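Supplementary Text 2. Reproducibility record for the structural model of the 140-residue chain.

All settings were left at their defaults, and a single model was retained for analysis rather than an ensemble. We include the record here because the model underlies the residue-level annotations in Supplementary Table 4.
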Amino acid sequence: MLQINDKITIQDWELTESFTPAQGPGGQNVNKVSTAVELRFEAARSPNLLVPVKTRLKKLAGRKWTSDGAIILRVEDTRSQARNREIAKDRLKQLILQALIQPKRRIATRPTLGSQKRRLAVKLQRGVVKSLRGKVKDVE
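Retained model, structure tokens:
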């Protein structure tokens, strides 16, 4: 069981761990022990997450979100399998906590008169610069 906050806990049936040999340094140990962790969280089927949270989670997860609604996190940061498991669960927890934050709605505002005038003055100046790049006409 993974405790996200006071209200949300992830049950064991929602998480699946598989272990594979890690890449990178490790000497002979890397050939013998499967230290890389692949944590799979069934996010779409989770009864603990609300629909808007799942939508934000899908957006945050990006390529880690599979077509069947699961999040797959692969961790091979350390040579220790136990430490990699902790890191994977921690990353999942941080991802869910980030999805729980509801973004603030943007309040539409109008640009000030001064900023409009400054913008138009810059556009006019830029147009003058571009017009001076043209061919030079001889006055005869």
